[in-house]
Amino acid sequence: MPLVPVVPESHGNVLAEFDCLDPLLSALRLDSGRLKCTCLAVSRKWLALGTSAGGLHLIQREGWKQRLILTHKEGSITQVACCPHDEDFIAVATSQGLVVVWELQLERRGRPERVSVSWEHKGQNITALCWDTSALRVFVGDTGGKVSYLRAGSSKLGKGSAFVIFPVQTVTTVDSRVVQLGYQDGRLLVSSLSRCYLCDTDREKFWRVGNKERDGEYGACFFPQSKGLLVGQPPLLYCARPGSRIWEANFNGEVLSTHQFKQLLACPPLPLISYRNEPHYNPAQKSPQSVAFPKLLYLGDQNLLTWTDSAIYIFTPQNGQVLLWTEVKDLVDVAVYRSELFCLHGSGRLSHYSLLSAERCVERLLRRESWLLATVVCCMFQHAITTSRARKSIPIDRLEHLKSQLSSSTHLDLIGQLEEVILKLEPLDSASSSRRSSISSHESFNVLDCGIYRVISRRGSQSDEETGSLINQSMSEEERLREFSFVQEEDQVDHGKTQYFLIEQQLSVRMGISKSSSSESINNSVSSFVKKTTEKINTLQMNSELWQRPDFREGVQAEFSAPTAIYSEEMENEYSISFISNISTQIQDPLVLLDPVCLEDTLLEWLPVLERILGPTEVASKTDGEPTGIPNGTTTEPVRVVSPKPVPSDLLANLTQLAMLYTELSCFRKGGDVRALGCTTFLRRYFFLLDQERVRRMCLLCYQEQPDVQKLSQSSKVVEVIQRGDLLRSLRSLKELQSWSAPALLPHLYRLYEKHGEAAVRTFSQFYPTITPADVMAMAQQRHFLAYLDNLVQSRTEEHRLSFLQSLLEPESLRQDWLELALIHDAPQHCDTLTPDGQPRWHSHCFSWGYGRLLSLLVRLPADFSSKQKMAELCRSHGYWIGYLYLCCELQRRSEAFTTICQLDDISLLEGPDGIEPVTLDEWKLLIQLSQQYSSVPEQLTGVNGGSWSNGSADCSGRVSPENLTLRLARTAGPDRALAVLEECGVQLVLSPHSTLVCELLRVAEKRQRAMIQTMLERCDRFLWSQHA
């Protein structure tokens, strides 16, 4: 196991996951594709989970036991909020715009009751709920910008209060959708898409926070000042701004300052401490982040929390610092209580995180006997574990016990690193915690009875702290190079544990990429990468005399004895300073950066440098005049997945970036250029330098028609389970993997697909978003891919399916491809839906389509005019008449839609929410004329779609006939007007006795309605005159 990197001393807190809520969701059946968790709220006692079926599960946090389930028939649950001062009340919002306040009545052991209901936001999506901090009052915000509140009656408020119905009152209507609501000390904070507003609900006064507008989802919250000298001060306001900025305002809405977090977020993310996978910390600096904070929440002790769909951020705004930020995948919503976070993921999964110090995290891990995870946290946060205050929670004997629990055969490096941490521990009564940084890591000490610290140097030299620190600070570059050594990791040398899974058909074609699409995106980064690489090589050559000479001993191989095996005197001659300076100068030239041809030539000049450093031995020994590489047609050269020689990490990183540029620019052998390597040769020779994820994405983006890709997988128990042919056990083994990444999962999924075909590919939806539809489309057959796509879309709730499918369309041209696939596979025969001349067959829209649900979503996706025209032609050519009618309505081709309806001869197509009903009298005339034209009984009526004729007669009530259309028009415009339109169309029609009776009844109803209206108008007129008099 490699050494655990150490986190800087500025970070002493972590997010840790100790509890697994998956069994809870399984018990509630919220882990299925049909029923999912949609929202959540948390309080001291409850964890409330809203579902897509309209149920609200109340989970008692002590023991995670379900206590209640509240059902709602008014749609799925979209928002839920627990009352902060009385946990017997909870507010719920549904997808139909209903808001309900429940009184649980647990203390009296009664049944839960709806004590208040509001339909004020009916038809709108409710986006925010917020409780009053002192009264039983709930504030509601929706997508239209309306903010209202409703009061809850309860017997707790006094006699008769439970029977009082309080009216719903509108507070205000802002300019755009409400993003977040907050309430504190009589004032309501409303954050919309463009501004933040502060409302005094008692005095009905309103203020705008700041003068600048914004555009997007940005949250805002109150920040109580309840610490130290700030106790009793009014709370502050924090409002998110674009570009990782947050406004700080006072209680009157006046902006006091702007906190800039963009540069502060350039630090690497702290790992999430979780039982699910081993934490990994990459100390490399990241670029500044420009993040939009969709919501802000007050967390724990004077902290501010926000999140995106991929990360959680926690700030200390009073100091203007980043407490921590951690990458968490697929976040949808977060609820907090004190220092605890409950996260809802897009897949419906729940996570429970705790914000705590590193030493408290280790203490809890030790109590749970998570030995390996506790050791990693100790090594990673050494500065927090070694302090004297940590001895209260982590005594030395507990760390010694922890060390004894680790296996010396598998965790030898980790044991050694933990021993170093134990040697640095400060005693409990030590006063050196304030100056712990001055104690050298290579010295130990003990405390004498008189209180004197006795420092013992293990180097045998003077251990004066100040002198040692000065010596370290004044260390020259040459001395650092003398101490530099390369470490060959054991897992890289052991090739017996690695097997290769290689599919090389069309590989050379697959890896190419057009320079026009990539040169602009990488011109800015080429300069810094090549400059750093050449400077590093130059430094290593200039200081070659400083390297330690090899000391060959018995039993030690010469190639791993010292770093001088890489940088020999022969390499010094090859890496001349003039050559490297020439490459650097050419890269810095703007004419080279902006010219793809010159840029490729420069990279081709760099390639021999790479060949000499890391190329095969026979290649490095050749002269410059000889061509390098193995012909593209041969595959005898093995794939190299680890570096053949030890290389400094910074130099290896720069070489990796340049190798990726070489691959993405497609600098492979073209036009007989002997300097370039072929595609297959380059990939096999330098596969260890390539970023597998970037290569995979490049292939999927540019060459989706070639389904073969080079993959690398580790031999493991998962492969053995897959080879046995048990699909369920294979999926269970994949879920138990410590970490999921696309390059690691794709080989296993490909094996599953080869074994089980369509049955396997239908299960791949559970690996989204790690495995994308583009991955499955490149792997599986078209008909099998459709089954995967249909399962993936149906796994979302009904209201989210359309937007989710829209997010999968990258690029937009996939809409046409997927629509055509769904129209071809598992579809009716063309002869059943189309006549020989291409017209609709009678009732052919009643045929079932295998992917009808997916087709219905594809035709309803937002698209431009030309795309809708293409989709309409596709639907017509394949006989998908439901989609064709919808698209005709979208394209305003209503006459074509009426013609098709008359040919299909089904009057139900004019009814319902999806029906196309005539709007004007001209459309009614056109429809009646078309119905008369197609009213003759077609030949294909007999036996089509289950319909039949018996005794020479038919049930014509569902046909599109002039008589049925006249009755529909009579119900809309009146019978006299309908008969007049019929005469204008020149249709000679004799109504049946039933139709005649219906028209007479409509006339009577119309007369009575007119008489009633006239009576009401007269009464209103008399009343108004009486009031005027």
Automatic annotation (TrEMBL):
Gene3D superfamilies assigned: YVTN repeat-like/Quinoprotein amine dehydrogenase
**Where's it mainly located?**
cytoplasm
Give Gene Ontology CC terms.
Answer: BLOC-2 complex; cytosol
Please give the biological process terms from Gene Ontology that the record holds.
Answer: developmental pigmentation
Domain HPS5-like beta-propeller, chain residue ranges per copy? 15-345
Cellular localisation: Cytoplasm, Cytosol
Q: Which InterPro entries match?
A: Beta-prop_HPS5-like, HPS5, TPR_HPS5, WD40/YVTN_repeat-like_dom_sf, WD40_repeat_dom_sf
Q: Where is this region: Disordered?
A: 620-639
Q: Do you know which Pfam families this protein is assigned to?
A: Beta-prop_HPS5, TPR_HPS5
The segment(s) forming the HPS5 TPR domain are 640-1000
**Keywords attached to this entry:** Cytoplasm, Phosphoprotein
Top-level taxon of the source organism: Eukaryota
Which family is it part of?
Belongs to the HPS5 family.
Subunit structure as annotated in this protein's UniProt entry: Component of the biogenesis of lysosome-related organelles complex-2 (or BLOC2) composed of HPS3, HPS5 and HPS6.
Protein task: May regulate the synthesis and function of lysosomes and of highly specialized organelles, such as melanosomes and platelet dense granules. Regulates intracellular vesicular trafficking in fibroblasts. May be involved in the regulation of general functions of integrins.
State the name under which the record lists this protein. Hermansky-Pudlak syndrome 5 protein homolog
Identify the coding gene.
hps5
